[in-house]
Backbone:
């Protein structure tokens, strides 16, 4: 962004019914905030505030036509969308930097839409509870936090006028709907209000990593790794804001927020995952202390507690992946293999998914697949399916396969299916439905409805990888799958104790 006309240098151009997890996975919540304290100290060491910090402007791009901050600006506004945290958030930091340089108050707002894709009350409550923590932290920092009920295009421009907002900053999500929100606001914003977007979710900003859709992890890996030294830096702190708002924020009516939602309330919250940044950092701390050592060796065993479990907090932006990587990397000497694989998953695979959704407008349909994959699926479209299930049968875990049923029930009850089983689960949906299009539709619907981390680029890419071979290569041809990689029950049995998983999550547990 911009400069205030003839004045100081500024922006962009410048610088319920809850389900328990088994005890060994619940331990994560017990850990006190040791990591939080260490992280606070690391931020303080990076810089006293973002004003003194060398902000990497490649993280920022201008959305509006104009870039000049007007002279009579009354405040700067951060429109928080995807990255729902205060600290470790490049978009928040960028907005504070602008406000500090202009000596203006800083406001933060969140536009609460009544529904979003297939999200249910499970997801909304996780998000709202996280936002309550954001609101509290903002109040402590002298930064008013506002929840605006409705779509940004309907509520944000009026807010901008009412508060004399001189510059608007938002974060970045490559998905269609949030991209449209940004475009709608851009169209309706007064011309003299510069509007900048900051990629606060990826370590290497999505538009910096590559200007095009990457073919696979192989083609993007080096593009990411070669830029990590530049982007994988410590964060400065968001500080108590020295320029007070002319009017304080109205306290948020959280109950009214909840009742404004038009979502399915039958999918209950889960007990194992406490929403919010503090709880997310406790999960990170417990991952490092208890599970990181076996991540490399046991991450593909759904009976073992070896995963980070961080995806819900990453998805809602309550924990920054960059923070997780900074902390996990400190243990490289001790757990080299685990740390390297974690970086591969949480940076390379995750940012590959962002790249795919950003550059491929068909990221959630078979048309988004490579032509070899579309051709092979088409050639096998009429193959006889061994079983055919309707959506309800799948949703209720009523298939002939006890492992698939157990995985489905794990997702329904706990809001998080084990990563290895997600691949098996989606591939079986391809095998048991009438067409790849139907398989993809069912998989995305179930994933987005039940997974806490659903409605995420990782989810669309996970479903397209499993069903349409995205980022994969062709395998030996077989019925239904064609050249798409195949997985079966016998293969799972070779990898882990399938019976143990089925006993733990199988349908008999329903009546408990
Ligand atoms: C069919 C299918 C659906 C999926 N749906 C989702 C989804 O909706 N949301 C989601 O975040 N992930 C999804 N994934 C990717 C992956 O399974 C989850 O990210 C992972 O299981 C989350 O658990 P964790 O945080 O304990 O992972 P860990 O194994 O501890 O990994 C750490 C982080 O790395 C990233 N990561 C791990 N595996 C992948 C991957 N294959 N692709 C991209 N990033 C990855 C995630 O951000 C994850 O939180 C899906 C995968 C498949 C095959």
Residues:
């Amino acid at each position: 962004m911009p400069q205030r006309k003839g004045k100081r240098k500024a922006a962009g151009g410048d610088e319920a019914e809850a389900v328990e997890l088994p005890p060994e996975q619940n331990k994560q919540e017990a850990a006190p905030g040791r990591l939080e304290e260490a992280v606070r100290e690391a931020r303080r060491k990076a810089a006293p505030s973002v004003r003194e910090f060398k902000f990497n402007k490649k993280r920022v791009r201008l959305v509006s036509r104009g870039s000049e901050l007007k002279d009579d600006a009354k405040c700067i506004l951060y429109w928080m969308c995807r990255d729902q945290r205060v600290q470790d958030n490049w978009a928040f930091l960028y907005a504070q930097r602008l406000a500090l340089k202009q000596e203006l108050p800083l406001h933060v707002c969140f536009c609460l839409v009544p529904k979003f894709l297939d999200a249910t009350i499970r997801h909304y409550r996780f998000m709202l509870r996280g936002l309550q923590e954001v609101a509290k932290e903002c109040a402590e920092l002298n930064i008013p936090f506002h929840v605006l009920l409705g779509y940004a295009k309907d509520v944000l421009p009026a807010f901008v006028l009412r508060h004399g907002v001189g510059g608007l900053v938002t974060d970045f999500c490559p998905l269609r709907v949030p991209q449209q929100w940004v475009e709608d606001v851009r169209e309706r914003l007064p011309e003299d209000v510069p509007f900048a977007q900051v990629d606060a979710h990826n370590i290497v900003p999505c538009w910096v990593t590559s200007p095009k859709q990457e073919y696979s992890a192989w083609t993007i890996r080096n593009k990411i790794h070669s830029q990590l030294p530049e982007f994988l830096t410590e964060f400065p702190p968001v500080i108590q804001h020295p320029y007070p708002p002319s009017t304080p924020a109205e306290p948020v009516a959280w109950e009214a927020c909840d009742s404004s939602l038009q979502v399915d309330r039958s999918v209950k919250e889960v007990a194992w995952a406490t929403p919010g940044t503090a709880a997310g950092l406790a999960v990170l701390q417990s991952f490092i202390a208890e599970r990181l050592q076996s991540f490399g060796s046991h991450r593909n065993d759904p009976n073992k507690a070896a995963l980070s479990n961080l995806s819900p907090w990453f998805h809602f932006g309550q924990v920054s992946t960059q923070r997780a990587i900074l902390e996990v990397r400190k243990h490289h000497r001790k757990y080299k293999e685990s740390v390297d694989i974690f970086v591969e998953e949480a940076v390379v695979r995750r940012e590959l998914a962002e790249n795919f959704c950003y550059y491929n407008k068909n990221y959630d349909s078979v048309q988004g697949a490579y032509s070899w994959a579309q051709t092979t699926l088409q050639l096998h479209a009429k193959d006889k399916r061994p079983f055919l299930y309707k959506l309800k049968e799948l949703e209720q875990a009523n298939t002939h396969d006890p492992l698939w049923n157990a995985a489905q029930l794990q997702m329904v009850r706990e809001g998080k299916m084990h990563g290895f089983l997600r691949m098996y689960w989606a591939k079986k949906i391809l095998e048991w439905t009438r067409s790849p299009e139907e398989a993809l539709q069912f998989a995305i619907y179930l994933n987005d409805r039940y997974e806490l981390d659903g409605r995420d680029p990782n989810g669309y890419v996970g479903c397209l990888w499993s069903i349409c071979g995205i980022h994969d290569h062709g395998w030996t041809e077989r019925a239904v799958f064609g050249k798409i990689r195949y997985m079966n029950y016998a293969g799972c049995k070779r990898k882990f104790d399938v019976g143990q998983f089925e006993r733990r999550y199988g349908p008999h547990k329903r009546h408990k």
About this structure: The pocket of flavin-adenine dinucleotide is lined by residues 299, 307-311, 314-315, 345-346, 349-350, 353, 419, 422-423, 426, 447, 451, 453-454, 456, 458-459, 462-463, 465-466 (CB under 6 Å). The two ends are 57 Å apart (CA to CA). Residues 2-31 have pLDDT under 50 and may be disordered. The longest helix spans residues 336-359.
